[in-house]
Design a protein that fits this description.
- The complex is a heterodimer of chains A (about 350) and B (about 290).
- Chain A is α/β, with parallel strands linked by helices and about 350 residues long.
- Chain A has 20 helices and six strands.
- Chain A folds into two domains: about 240 residues, Alpha/Beta hydrolase fold, catalytic domain (Rossmann fold, 3-Layer(aba) Sandwich); about 90 residues, Protocatechuate 4,5-dioxygenase, Chain A (Orthogonal Bundle).
- Helix content of chain A is about 50%, strand content about 10%.
- A six-stranded parallel β-sheet of chain A has the order 2-1-3-4-5-6, with helices on both faces.
- In chain A, α4 packs across α5 and α5 crosses α6.
- The longest helix of chain A is centred in the first third of the chain and has 15 residues.
- Chain A is elongated.
- Chain B has a single domain, classed as 3-Layer(aba) Sandwich (Protocatechuate 4,5-dioxygenase, Chain B).
- Chain B is built from ten helices and ten strands.
- In chain B, the strands form two sheets. In chain B, strands 6-3-7-2-8-1-10-9 form an eight-stranded mixed β-sheet, with helices on both faces. A two-stranded antiparallel sheet of chain B has the order 4-5.
- The chains are: A alpha/beta (about 350), B alpha/beta (about 290).
- The interface between A and B is large, with 47 and 40 residues.
- The structure holds fe (ii) ion (FE2).
């Protein structure tokens, strides 16, 4: 991990730094840690902008619940700064039908009867069913909700109701991503996280056992362990992230199997003779498609690579029908050979 | 116990072999490249290793995509140069060091590396070219070889840090090998080059020169880079440079750089060489 990275922990609705106590202690051994404050803004975008401004340079962002929605918005606003992303107990979908009315009930309750009443109503479904009577867990959460105000709750609900649809951006996320959820999360269930993890290239899904929605406080050790492992997680290598550089990944290997097998055959002298004698008949032995045959027979190197051909294999064609490797390079680069030698390879 | 007398690094560009086969060694295009290897050849003549452990990748010659080992170790009596499509090359077969190969496989597995074991396998330019660059064109090779194959072509390729760890286990194997033989470890591949895609022809002399410095002075930095960073810095095929980390992981933390050489372009590649010895001298020579 880069030494300059800052870990940003983002709490959810009505939550504050207290839910991250355990994680702050462990993660600050690895990098500077800051906790976001979402108590003053009334839109997810404003929350994301303020959180981006908490530190300079690359960020490793951990969001819980609404905090994870803010994290997703940060990736949308500043993908170049987000080095890694962890989404805990959350959702990526836009506002659902009827959601406004359900939430309004709680807004009114907080206004009418105060934050203690809101805590009594709102907190129990947030934790594992078996622990609603666990004072060691519930009391600090109650105190935290009472520290918040009805105005803050109002603003945060407005932010949630006006949230952007983060779903359509998931496939563009290109940093190492952790998606974690309490197995007994009743508010944002496991299936929802499976969907999110499937949509983000290379994302890792971790299930926090014996935990409801409040996983950072319900199972702090499991969450911390998942985050420590996530700090060492490699970038996904499935998509082509380096421009004009087709890596020989899963898709290409499968796509190009026939064409590469055909070319591999040219290691044998008798196959080289067969290729020379009747190229099309030789290609047919490997069941090449019409497109693949056309690319090979017209020595269209760029197209062969597009079809999954790998240079180490298809180069063997040039052993039968000589062409310099620099000419193959120039063809793919779309350059004249002498310009390619000069501009790419620095030949005088 | 066996002695580790040094670590070598070199490119293994196939055009180098083709240039030798065609008698182009002393042409203006190639002479400066080959001349730069003379100090490396002199070191080999002087140091007289008995066994060369050579880390390289197969390039679709001995393995097809039907079965691709991430790491494989040659355990054969002999390794024949493979016909890559251009016909057989005029170089002698390589003699194996079977007993050490099996000792290496044992040590690897005991240390949680589980390689493919190859008792009959031909070898391509990945090992041929380094051997020719350091040992020339003898009628018979004066050194036995132990090939270690690393998959750096089909994704997922291993992590650079894993190559480094492999080197550390290789070191254990050499140090625990009951023999008087003198070992040299040869990391091969690179430096920057890219053969595929519209970025073909990418070379990065600045990154290559930094690599030649860091591989000696700050290898931990190179071992901690991601695969993607290797591709970014050195090109899609240049990422194979991570195989030098196996050699470097085998050496002491403090090494002496005896020789380096850099030349660009050799065909489409930034080509380089390094000769390293442990600062503390050959391992296993504590009594001296
Ligand atoms: Fe290679």
């Amino acid at each position: 991990m880069e030494t300059t990275v800052t870990i940003v922990l983002i709490p959810g609705l009505l939550c504050d730094a207290s839910i991250w106590t355990s994680q702050v202690a462990a993660l600050s051994q690895r990098a500077p840690v800051v906790v976001a404050d979402l108590s003053t803004q009334d839109s997810i975008t404003a929350m994301a902008r303020d959180t981006l401004a908490l530190a300079q340079g690359p960020l490793a962002v951990v969001g819980h619940s609404m905090g994870a929605r803010v994290a997703l918005e940060m990736v949308r606003l500043a993908p170049e700064r987000i080095e890694r992303l962890a989404l805990l107990d959350t959702g990526a979908h836009p506002r659902r039908d009827g959601e406004e009315a359900t939430r309004q009930v709680l807004v009114d309750l907080a206004r009418r009867e105060g934050m203690a009443a809101l805590a009594d109503r709102w907190l129990p479904p947030m934790v594992h069913e078996a622990r609603t009577g666990d004072a060691a867990l519930m009391e600090p959460l109650r105190e935290m909700v009472k520290r918040a105000t009805a105005d803050q709750h109002d603003r945060q609900i407005r932010a949630l109701l006006g949230r952007p649809n983060a779903r359509e951006h998931l496939s563009a996320i290109a940093c190492p991503t952790l998606v974690a959820v309490g197995r007994q999360d009743r508010w944002s269930p496991l299936a929802q996280h499976e969907e999110i993890a499937a949509a983000i290239p290379g994302a890792r899904l971790v299930i926090i056992e014996d935990s409801g929605h409040m996983s950072p406080v319900e199972q702090p050790d499991q969450v911390t362990a998942a985050l420590l492992a996530w700090l060492d997680m490699e970038s996904p290598m499935t998509a082509d992230r380096i421009p004009d550089t087709p890596l020989f990944d899963r898709e290409r290997q499968r796509r190009g199997y026939r064409i590469n097998k055909m070319a591999m055959g040219l290691s044998k002298p008798e196959n080289r003779e067969a290729f020379k004698a009747d190229e099309e008949a030789y290609l047919d032995r490997f069941s090449l498609t019409a497109d693949e045959k056309k690319a090979v027979m017209s020595r269209d190197w760029r197209e062969m690579v597009r079809l999954g051909g790998n240079l180490f294999f298809i180069l063997k064609i040039s052993a039968v029908d000589p062409v310099r490797i620099t000419e193959i390079g120039a063809h793919q680069a779309g350059m004249a050979h002498d310009a390619f030698l000069r501009d790419r390879l620095g030949k005088k | 116990m066996a002695k580790l007398i040094g670590g070598l690094g070199t490119s293994h560009v196939p055009s180098i072999a083709a240039a030798l086969d065609k008698g182009l060694r002393d042409t203006p295009d190639w002479k400066p490249f080959f001349d730069g290897y003379i100090p490396g050849q002199d070191w080999v003549k002087e140091a007289k290793p008995d066994v060369a452990v050579v880390i390289f990748n197969d390039h679709g010659n001995s393995f097809f995509l039907d079965r691709v080992p991430t790491f494989a170790v040659g355990c054969a009596e002999e390794y024949k140069p493979v016909d890559e499509g251009w016909g057989p090359r005029p170089i002698p077969p390589f003699q194996g060091a079977v007993d050490f190969s099996w000792h290496l496989v044992d040590t690897l597995v005991e240390n949680r590396f589980d390689p493919m074991i190859c008792q009959e396998i031909d070898v391509d330019h990945g090992i041929q070219v380094p051997m020719e660059l350091f040992w020339g064109r003898p009628a018979a090779w004066p050194v036995k070889v132990v090939p270690i194959f690393v998959n750096v072509i089909q994704y997922p390729i291993p992590l650079p840090s894993r190559c480094w760890e492999l080197g550390q286990v290789l070191r254990k194997a050499i140090e625990s090998y009951d023999s008087d033989e003198r070992f040299v470890v040869v990391g091969t591949g690179g430096l920057s080059h890219q053969l595929q895609g519209a970025r073909a022809g990418f070379v990065n002399p600045e990154a290559d020169r930094a690599f030649l410095r860091d591989i000696a002075a700050d290898p931990g930095k190179l071992a901690s880079l991601s695969r993607e960073r290797y591709v970014e810095l050195f090109g899609s095929e240049g990422a194979e440079l991570m195989m030098w980390l196996v050699m470097r992981g085998c050496m002491d933390e403090a090494v002496k750089v005896l020789h380096t050489h850099y030349f660009v372009p050799a065909s489409m590649t930034g080509a380089g060489m390094i000769v390293l010895e442990n600062e503390a001298g050959a391992t296993g020579r504590a009594a001296a």
